[in-house]
Fold these 3 entries.
Entry 1:
Amino acid sequence: MPCLKTTHKVNIPLIHFDNVSKRYPGGHTGLSNVSLRIEAEEMVFLTGHSGAGKSTLLKLIGLLERSSAGQVHVNDRNLTRLKNRQIPYHRRDVGMIFQDHRLLHDRTVFDNVALPLIVSGLGHKETGRRVRAALDKVGLLHKEKSPPITLSGGEQQRVGIARAVVSKPPLVLADEPTGNLDPALSQEIMELFSQFNQVGVTLLIASHDIDLIKRMQKRVLTLSKGQLTGDTIGKSIHVP
Amino acid sequence: MSLRKRLLNAPQIWLQRHAQVALASLGQLTRNHLSSLMTCSVIGIALALPVGLHVMLGNLQSISGTWDSGASISLFLKQQIRDDQATSLAEKLRLHQRIEDVELITREKALAEFQALSGYADALEALDSNPLPALLIIQPKADFTTAETAQLLVRELKLLPEAEIVQLDLQWVRRLQAITVIAQRAVVVLAALLGMAVLLIIGNTIRLEIQNRRTEIEITKLIGATNAFIRRPFLYTGFWYGLFGGIIAWLLVAISITLLSGPIAQLANLYQSAFDLSSLGISTVLTLLLGSALLGLIGSWLAVGRHLNAIEPS
């Protein structure tokens, strides 16, 4: 069962962007002057058109990219100052979920989910216990010995989710997690996210599925051309 | 799990992980057994060459070494000297102050040996008289085995009325030794060059491996793997390549020696010496295996250092 790894003081946000810009080499602007705060235990959606900067924002949090200007703080860490060799330890505290799942197809479901625990050097017995708990949570315990390729798209995504939460990170990022799924499966995934949120995991989910987001009744951040244009709750989203 | 318990378990987990990665990379090699075998064979052949030459040189040295200490003088007697005259000459020479021992090979004995060993038995029977002279093999006393002192003895022996040819079998032994030293240097140079070739082979194999597993590396980095963690399986793969290459080199040399030992024993027999081709000593084998495994490790380290940092998840 995921739970908070570190207790955050109420006044320190889990994610804090202060005038953050990201320009890619070649001149393309990913984000310009974005400031935002996301408190611990929030569940926040990130929406906007393709190219609005959703992925860039998530990549800055996971340190897949570094900001060109401004300060990014995540989990009490100043990411702007974090050295390259410290990046792995930061990523262990951020579970990441992708539209294309990014599973290793030459390994079983179990081994895929176990990867974050192996990477952080957890013992064999403890690893097995936690992997089974995570797989049980996403309803795939019976598939632990299968290769991911034999699973349906929704099941593969749930393996990806199990992998993201197995090490109990305080923060989980999801980039278009339901992009390839039909509405019913998408709803299932969202309910799973809600359950994680209820036990204290902070979630930031990028999605352009407006209907789904509206139904979830959560905080929604809207990006447009790299700028933050909306910060609302639930139904009143407006995507320009 | 408490911190104390985690710390106590840490070394055990570390070992466990290493064993796991070592076995997993070994498993990966056996799954692609054909290409792995080919890579290991290339490494093995490259290593077998200097190792084989080293063993051959070792043998050559041990032969020339025994020859040197036993530098003897061959005194061929004139044709007309009869065997009984030869025997009395041998007796006389045995009393010489500079001579340790004299071995007499009478004309009769020489003919018998020649017939037995040369295969010209029939041709010899056709001759009506024995064409071979009697031979005295003279072993100088220990103080007179150096080139100069032995030469003095040779000069003295040449003055004997019975002497036809006096031969000191030392000069060519010296030359052979000089050549052996040069050959040894050449083997070291060759070993260095082929060692470099092995480094390149392993480096290139690992580079391809890294490219093949690019996605896996990206995903593992995304999940928070350190570079050390990602490097580890490739280093083990290089280690195994090197080790198996070394084992193949060992087998190749051992087989070659077995194949050669028969003919060489025969050759040695023709020279009337019982020479056994010595095989790879345990220390040579250990050095070979250790060296090849180390080459594998270094080769993969170089490749990993160059190519792994270039892969970052996006």
Entry 2:
Amino acid sequence: MESLTASQARDHIEMVDRILTRSERSLHVGGEFFLAWGLFSTAVTLTAQLVVDRRIPANSLWALPVLLAAAIVFSAVRGRQLGKCKDGLSLIQREFFAVLWISLGVAMFTDIVAYRIFTTWASSAIWTVAAAVVLFFIASHGNRRALACGIILLASLAAANFMPAFTGYALAAGMLFGYAGFGLISLIARD
Amino acid sequence: MDELLLSKIRLGVIAELLNAEWVTFSDLQQATQTTHGNLGAHLAKLVESGYVAEEKVFVNRRPQTRYRLTKAGRSAFVQHVRDMQHLLGKESAS
């Protein structure tokens, strides 16, 4: 029976290690999802803050369900396209999309069913937390941009907590630069 | 050790398939830097042993052959890597 020498075994293990490291680093995240949901979340929080500050009329809030519907439709259509991708998705990509949809789904569910507990800014803060979870998951696969953007989100959360007059602005800035910004950077990097 | 995976090219192919759903022949050829005939022969052995599944599809009206790792292939790979690590552990201990 054939076998390997220790030297050959070391060589083979090093090759396997190189291949696996390369394939794990090639986790392509859907930048467009981050951009769409980041812009939607920014719009929601910013609109709410502007209404609170009486800079825009309260009926502006009616635009938000339209934006939400647009974000959902976009995600569903793009998700179907990715699902039909000719080479399919890698295991790590499927894992990533599972984390993405679970986090957003839980945030949305919480927002809808626990609206008496998570009132006003707490509702926006839930989205910030969910977004940060997704980014830190991506960061755990060696993506430093995701790490930086996750930190931006958490920093916006802390800033919002200590600036009561600007809570909405701080959360909106976090979503814009941390979440939508990550999507934009990912799209640029992919191209 | 798994005799089929003693070949560096076949081991490389399995490692390439490990994190992917389906990988095309041309992508595997590019990744392993082997000739068409050589890779074809190695893949045939992996398919025959049940470590890799083969599928022929049409993409933009062109035929395409793609491959996926099977459960048997994944188990064999894991065991083979363990065996190699065991061998290296024994060598460093002696």
Entry 3:
Amino acid sequence: MNETRFTDQHEWVRVDGGEGTVGITRYATEQLGDVVYVELPKIGRSLAKGAEAAVVESVKAASEIYAPVGGSVTAANEALNDDPAKVNADPEGEGWFFKLKLANAAELSALMTAGQYADYVKGL
Amino acid sequence: MTMNNQGSPTATGAGQTREPATISGDRGMDHEERLIFELGRPGMSGVDIPRVEIAESRLAGQRRKGPIGLPGLSEPEVVRHYVRLSRMNYSIDAGLYPLGSCTMKHNPRLNEKLARLPGFGDLHPLAPLSAAQGALALIGELMRWLTALTGMPAVTMVPKAGAHGELCGMLTIRAAIAARGEQRPRVLVPESAHGTNPATATFAGFTVDEIKATPKGRVDVAALEAKLGPDVGAVMLTNPNTCGLFERDVLRIAQLVHKAGAYFYCDGANFNAIAGRVRPGDLGVDAMHINLHKTFSTPHGGGGPGAGPVVLSAALAPFAPLPLLVHDASGFRLIEDRDEVPAGARPFGRMCAFHGQMGMFVRALATMLSHGRDGIRQASEDAVLSANYILASLKDAMSAPFEGPCMHEALFDDEFLHDSGVTTLDFAKAMIDEGYHPMTVYFPLVVHGAMLIEPTESESKESLDRFIRVLGTMALEAKAGKRERFEGAPRLVPRRRLDETAASRKPVLRWKPKEMPKAAE
């Protein structure tokens, strides 16, 4: 399975095997403006679904990034430390924040599909 | 040309459209001023100091080896430098300053004169108490006014700013909880509270839980009630809140907070809307800071630091920090030591070395005495009236997210700019070209593209009408697709739109010389 799911807090999670890659959506980056700093979670940290996982700071505001699903952090995108602009340039690709090993894959089903998320954003 | 996220040019300095360029680089009275380090040259000095021959140096290894790197300038050069810089500044003395949640009100000249009286202005912090009786009496009188205006039994004058006052209040609450032998690590903060509130609670060792706002821009009482429990130490409310609205359920909130065994902190930064009309003590508040430097003149603390006294309920009063001001048969004195406090007092500690900001105390008391209680009430009413005049006059040209009437701040959102290609930031920057300091933008966060305008009671109706005409016309132009005045604004100032992204990503925090100049002698 390799599918991207979305939260109403504008995070995305792409699952490949038992591992999910997490980032923020293009809509979120448009709302935030230019990202100037990203605080990433430590590898090995265990996150509950909805727990505060990372912080993103833009020229306009600082926002928390929540774990879309529970799991333990397996990787953090250290490249963002030197070049936070990647988040704006490619939010749903190179601008990913962290990866985590899913604790409970069933949590994914509560998240939105790409189509549902597009409708959700349209309604904002 | 670099582009920022708003899609507007961000060139700095270059790109001035006024032609022809001058030969000097200055533009009339608009001087192109360099840093003082770039102006100075080694060897130049304002005064000639006779050379002293030192027979035997006692500095040993401490002797300076390299040049000190201070700029060398003559006295007129130094004076010109700072006068030119001061002319680039915008202040409440220069024009309307509608910065929401900052209460930039007029600073009466009488207050300045009184603050400069040598007995106050030249008083040394370590002067013996016998030589400071007048100043201490003034602080005592100011404390009396603050407790009377707020209906609270006690006040501490220690904190040096609003956020420092918040911290003082939260540390007082923490001490009170500890004295009860309880564990209450959580603090609830509504979305509509000041941004410093969650930061303060976190800094004071609590964990913060946010409470959502209702669609009417006020605290969701049901959500608050659901989150209250035996682990909640305090609720921090801003009233009037950052949406410029009075929290009508404040009595119910206080009741719920107290029933849960928690304390009720109120952010008093918006006291200018209610001073003389509502006493926080009557609302069930346990602790509230008062920004003397907003509500009672000295805008922005005269450059800072400010003064943020905290009024306390009977439950919290014993835990107020040192030093304590007391008055007895021998006059005023300060209790500096925990061992000397009166029976029942259990100060949580000490926040800073000295008692407070004397200049601000003088200005605040001067404001209170010259206005009187009825005058303070009228000032608050006029501040609210001014904000409502702006809200009512601009709500059709612009867009207001919440139904009025408002308190002393008028809040707009960017709905009226939808699809215009103009953002809240562009709108605010274009105000600079019109000679106004921009309003608070993108705050509060609960509103999209927020613009928070606080006119205060200082503005005349004529001044408000002019402001309304300018903003109204700007809004109409933006909606009509006329983007010229917004693109790349401001244009008529020494520097055009700054590249905030580059400034954040690659901050240059310190000027460095290419080569250290030789020391001035």
